[in-house]
Amino acid sequence: MSVAQQIMLGFGKSGPKATGGTVSYSGGYTIHTFLAGGTFTALENLTADWLVVGGGGGGGGGSSTNEAGGGGGAGGLLTGAGDSIVAGSYTVTVGYVGAGGAAAAGQQGGASAFNGNTAHGGGGGGRGNGIAPTPSPIGSGGGGGGGISYPGFSGAAGTSGQGFAGRAGENNTGGGGGGAGATPTGIRVGGAGFASSISGVSVTYATGGATINATTPAAPSGTPNTGNGGRGSTTVSDSSGGSGGSGIVIIRYLT
Q: What sign does the dihedral 230-231-234-235 (CA atoms) show?
């Protein structure tokens, strides 16, 4: 039987194995990317790799006495490889951004989830001259705010296996937020993220929010769908921190 005859009879054809999210193809894999919540439906039993990243925490705002806020913690990050996915429908949740603080602590990001795996949102950075919020559980910890004539305030701890603690502030300078890959290595530096090629290209997710000095005019927000923490504020009185980056969920299997 010729190849043309086989195709006409339906041999050698493969229908979709799953639906949901934005579908792409790379390196022999079918990839489902969720930038917002939805439903992943496996039409047959699958062996899949997956990445779940929570929303990043917002950076802390400055105080009225010119102390900088801490950087927001990165969203928690979880991965799986070669997991069995039974045919059926699965709710996918993508974490929302944590808002930056306006003369206040940053807000915690939202959790992302797939198939019983929940990556917590990153912790918010502390307000200048105030202590970092420590809601539980959080993915990576927010950095501590700076304080007058003090070594600064402690950063919050992250969740083991998802992210690292934020850095303490030093005097007027806020500490960087924790990342999925490491604690901050410097006072204004956010913790390292985690690089993954599950989407077909290498992307670094869940980097902790940095802090910035008084000469920088604004506190930028985290990149959407990375789980990055928002930057802490400047030392300018009552300045605002940046919002975190929203989360993401990616699932792939052999096409």
A: positive
